[in-house]
Specification:
ibrinogen binding protein from staphylococcus aureus fold; 40% helix
Length: 571
């Protein structure tokens, strides 16, 4: 987190939280923690993100939409040690990105918010480390359990601007300039705790006012210490270029909006929540595209295999010509050395056709075998050709989806991409149709689950499990209570689910028959002429006590008899 912004947040937290009670230390995700304080003005909630690339502290602005997270052992221990304690003081050393909550003589909480060094540390008596989210690394780093905690020392050859005069800062920068270092690099690398954004703001203001860099920086740091001014989010038309500014620049920029939230902590949360949401969206779109590319490669690989199978088929017409020649030349056929020679009726010269002999079989039986091989080869080529056409068309369709949605950059774009992939039979975004499940799914990268996706002639989505574990996940994780559940009666087979758009939707008879035919096809009764299929609402399905994965009991059900049929969109 930018140190100058954190300085504002720390001052604000000190004024607001000193004397309050820490009533909740919770965890929302692997890296996201929530602190709730009881103040005279009401409860105040803060979010602490331990993302190594972008740690931050800010107000809790919205309800967490991610999946529920079981607290880590650190969170449980920290809650027991800290909850119910009064905040005596909130302090921050000027140049260090560390915030410390003093919770009495025997407890404290340290937020270390340096990039690639983020950590949460619970202190005990004597400021010793009682618990830590991330433990000490070999060769230095975080404090070890039981050792006294101390802030990291100032790196050598750097200047702490928070305790330096304007003249001292100018002398230091002049020395760096004399060594050939540009002003921006000298400010952000030579002055500890300033950062790239703060350095650029100081340079711009110095150029606009004519003041020295040291005077501009000293005045701005004094304003941070005194609580004057406010930080802002600079939001240009390109969201990727948004910046969190420690103070508002004096000069406005055309086409650039500067937004503030509820204090520094609210403004910081606005910025970081937007950044993390954009990152989750990029991850989601990248995962969807990766699934698409993988399925295209798999489909093209299958098409290539079928193409090689077609090339390996013997020429069907060759067997037919040999069979016809053999029947036409039964009287003149000559057998010997494992071969049969007969005149070729298609050649006026009477050139002989050589046919492999099969000792022990009559010539007419051999001719019948040749005609049967002709029929099998023709049928095999026809079926393989049809499958090749289906695979080629599917690969082209998937590639078209990938190309059409390549510029996806918004939530609506990602939803449209998921919808197109589901229409193409790829099982993405199949979570149960509940508000919480949909919200959790939108924050998690999609994955290709073990579920077949089909669309009925009526346009309804039908899901078919692949393995027993997939059946269990489909029924009890993906299906909603009002979805229609089907399974072939009394035989092992796939769980089948018809997704219902809402609770009042009645599944069309045609879709029910189509789903039942799939349940019969993907069961051990596939070869039966007719199969009984049980169907019911998913809410009437229970896991069988003591049964293996995928084994269920039905509270109530109805039965429909259908003929097993493969999916229309097979291939």
């Amino acid at each position: 987190m930018d140190n100058l912004v954190l300085t504002r947040v720390a001052r604000e937290a000190s004024a607001e939280l000193t004397g309050s009670i820490l009533v909740e230390f919770g965890q929302q995700s692997r890296e996201r923690f929530r602190l709730v304080f009881d103040t005279p003005e009401g409860r105040r909630a803060f979010i602490v993100s331990m993302n190594p690339e972008r740690p931050w502290l800010g107000r809790d602005l919205r309800r967490w939409r991610g999946p529920r997270w079981s607290p880590d052992p650190f969170t449980v221990a920290a809650g027991k040690a800290l909850e119910g304690r009064r905040v005596v003081a909130v302090t921050k050393d000027g140049s260090d990105r560390t915030l410390r909550f003093d919770l009495g003589a025997e407890a404290g909480l340290v937020l270390e918010l340096a990039t690639h060094g983020a950590n949460l540390v619970v202190l005990g008596g004597g400021r010793s480390v009682r618990e830590a989210l991330r433990h000490a690394r070999r060769g230095g780093g975080w404090s070890a359990i039981g050792e006294p905690w101390s802030p990291r020392p100032l790196p050598p050859r750097l200047l702490d601007p928070f305790v330096s005069s304007a003249e001292a800062i100018d002398r230091f920068l002049a020395g760096r300039a004399g060594a050939g270092e540009p002003a921006l690099e000298a400010l952000r690398r030579g002055l500890f705790g300033i950062g790239s954004i703060g350095a650029q703001l100081v340079i711009d203001e110095s150029a606009a006012t004519g003041e020295s860099l040291g005077r501009v920086l000293r005045r701005r740091l004094d304003e941070l210490r005194d609580g004057a001014g406010e930080c802002a989010v600079e939001a240009p038309s390109d969201p990727e270029s948004a910046r969190l500014l420690p103070w508002r620049p004096r000069k406005p920029v055309a086409g650039v909006e500067r937004v503030t939230g509820e204090g520094a902590a609210g403004t910081a949360a606005l910025y970081y929540e937007a950044v993390e949401q954009a990152q989750r969206l990029r991850t989601r779109i990248a995962a969807l595209s990766s699934i698409l590319r993988g399925e295209i490669a798999r489909t093209l690989g299958a098409a290539g295999k079928v193409g090689r199978e077609i090339e390996g088929f013997e020429d069907p017409e060759r067997h037919r010509r040999m069979g016809e020649a053999l029947l036409a030349g039964l009287a003149s056929a000559r057998r010997g050395d494992g071969r049969i020679a007969v005149p070729d009726p298609a050649e006026p010269s009477g050139e002989a056709v050589v046919i492999p002999d099969e000792p022990g079989r009559s010539l007419t039986d051999i001719a019948d075998g040749l005609f049967e091989r002709h029929r099998r080869a023709r049928r095999g080529r026809r079926l393989a050709g049809g499958r090749l056409a289906l695979l080629s068309a599917r690969a082209a369709r998937l590639q078209e989806i990938l190309d059409r949605h390549a510029p996806a950059s918004s939530e609506a774009d990602a939803a449209a991409l998921e919808s197109a992939m589901r229409d193409a039979g790829l099982p993405v975004a199949l979570g149960a149709a509940t508000r919480g499940a949909r919200a959790a799914a939108s924050t998690a990268p999609p994955r290709l689950a073990g579920v077949r996706v089909h669309t009925s002639l009526d346009g309804w989505t039908i899901l078919v499990g692949r393995t027993s574990r997939d059946n269990d996940r489909l029924t009890f994780k993906l299906a909603s209570p009002e979805d229609v559940w089907l399974h072939a009666a009394d035989v092992p087979g796939a769980h089948v689910v018809i997704r219902t758009p809402d609770r009042r939707s009645e599944v069309p008879r045609g879709t029910l028959v189509e789903a039942a035919s799939l349940a019969a096809w993907f069961s051990d009764a596939r070869d039966d002429p007719a199969v009984d299929v049980r169907w019911t609402s998913r809410k009437h399905v229970r896991r069988a006590k003591g049964g293996s994965s995928g084994v269920v009991q039905l509270k109530r059900f109805q039965t429909i008899r259908v003929r097993p049929k493969p999916p229309r969109d097979a291939g």
